[in-house]
Amino acid sequence: xxxxxxxxxxxxxxxxxxxxxxxxxxxxxxxxxxxxxxxxxxxxxxxxxxxxxxxxxxxxxxxxxxxxxxxxxxxxxxxxxxxxxxxxxxxxxxxxxxxxxxxxxxxxxxxxxxxxxxxxxxxxxxxxxxxxxxxxxxxxxxxxxxxxxxxxxxxxxxxxxxxxxxxxxxxxxxxxxxxxxxxxxxxxxxxxxxxxxxxxxxxxxxxxxxxxxxxxxxxxxxxxxxxxxxxxxxxxxxxxxxxxxxxxxxxxxxxxxxxxxxxxx
Length: 265
Ligand SMILES: Nc1ncnc2c1ncn2[C@@H]1O[C@H](COP(=O)(O)OP(=O)(O)OP(=O)(O)O)[C@@H](O)[C@H]1O
Ligand SMILES: [Mg+2]
What we know:
Helix 5 packs parallel to helix 6 (about 185-200). The longest helix has 16 residues, at about 185-200. It is built from eight helices and twelve strands. It is of the alpha/beta class.
């Protein structure tokens, strides 16, 4: 049975997506899905095509072939802004926070709110600060103040602000590219807690991770990428670290081991 088949109407369905850069085939005929109220992981070695694939979903890249469907409708975003307008938010490895702006300004970046009437409009700073506070509170994120500059936050706090921003705007799908790669144990635990909250709020969460323990702790499903292809998919509860390592490296399965729930043809 395929993983995709067991999810009724997944929020995200990627089918047969390919993307090359010149002579480099980064993603080849990749298919996967991510359901609402679930954490879906993508794992694979360096260069396997994970980041490129999610950029094809979010609108950073245009795929050369294949289809991306959101809530059952084919979408082809020409830019990340278009993806965002349809409810796809991405937290990239570099986070794209502006260090010299305050937390609340980062949360409202490109979404500034104004007040006033007619042509006379002012930035609604206080309104945005209050809303920023409640966005952070809703997800139980602790920062010294929403007026603090992002530069002065810890790595975990910065990651939390970026995730709050991604989750805060009626998103359907939040994609995170290695959200805890740079974090210590305690900060990682907090970010994982935040990811669980998004899942429990009913969002579809797609997480790229190199940390197999994290994937086993956090995800409901996991897709394996190898050399540009999605080669396997598992329900996390039905797999093990050994099976994931074998799938990522392409090691032969022992004859008596059950096959993963592959969606490969
Ligand atoms: N903008 C680009 N231009 C040219 N080649 C690229 C570009 N982006 C990615 N590639 C190539 O595509 C392949 C897949 O890269 P990608 O970044 O998607 O891998 P990844 O699975 O995210 O790896 P990592 O775990 O190291 O982040 C690599 O060979 C990479 O060099
Ligand atoms: Mg990557």
